[in-house]
Amino acid sequence: MGAKTITHEVESQVSAPRMFQALIVDSHNLIPKLMPQGIKSVHLLQGNGGAGTIKQINFGEGTQSKYMKHRIDILDKENYICKYTLIEGAMLGDKLESIVYEVKFEPSSDGKCTIKSTSEYHTCGDFEISEEEIKGGKERAMGMYKVVEGYLSENPTIYA
Predict the structure, then answer these.
(1) Which of 24, 61, 69, 103 sits 20 to 30 Å CA-CA off 54?
(2) What confidence tens digit (pLDDT) does each residue in 75-120 have?
(3) pLDDT at residue 62 greater than cutoff 90
(4) Residues 3-30 pLDDT 10s
(5) CA-CA distance, 112 to 91, in Å (whole number)?
(6) Sign of CA dihedral 14, 117, 95, 124
(7) How distant is the alpha carbon of residue 47 from its chain centre?
(8) For 14-53, what is the HEC assignment?
(9) Which distant-in-sequence residues (6+ apart) come within 8 Å of 90 by Cβ?
(10) 83 with 73: CB under 8 angstroms?
(11) Which of 27, 21, 33 is closest to 159 using CA atoms?
(12) Residue 40 above 90 pLDDT?
């Protein structure tokens, strides 16, 4: 088993507490409403949203995968940090054993934030994941960040 770590950073015009609440804490309610074509539904299969919770994300018609399951490993609401592991579905199979994500929302002095994400791809056997294979997932995540940021910018009282 090998591992490849990718980091990414993006600036947001919205505050860390609001982005964290929308993208992490209440994502199972908000994301399917904002992106119904891509994410049909999100269900909590186990737990109450904190560490140990398992979520199933069901994708819309025409997507490559039907679903994926995440396990929340760390949920730090005071420091706006979430660490979770993709444990089933999506890209996993004979090439990837798991993907571990950590997302940090760092407040800035001007009321905005920086979103820092780290993804650890744990591969099976001698398989080495390429940048091209990672690119699609990163682009989808950035697209979701931008949709949520736009929604929160247009609705300044939501999650305030």
Answers:
(1) 61
(2) 999 999 999 999 998 778 778 899 999 999 999 999 999 999 999 9
(3) no
(4) 888 898 999 999 999 999 999 999 999 9
(5) 32
(6) negative
(7) 18
(8) CCHHHHHHHHHHCHHHHHHHHCCCCEEEEEEEECCCCCCC
(9) 65, 67, 68
(10) yes
(11) 21
(12) yes
Type of residue found at 62? G
Of 136, 14, 28, whose CA–CA distance to 75 is shortest?
Answer: 28
* Tokens encoding 19: 């982005």
Helices 27-34 and 131-154 meet at what angle, rounded to 10?
A: 90
- Report how far residue 97's alpha carbon sits from residue 76's, in angstroms, rounded to the nearest whole number: 25
**Angle at the Cα of 41 (from 132 to 53), degrees rounded to 5?**
85
Q: What is the pLDDT of residue 53?
A: 96
Residues comprising the chain, all counted = 160
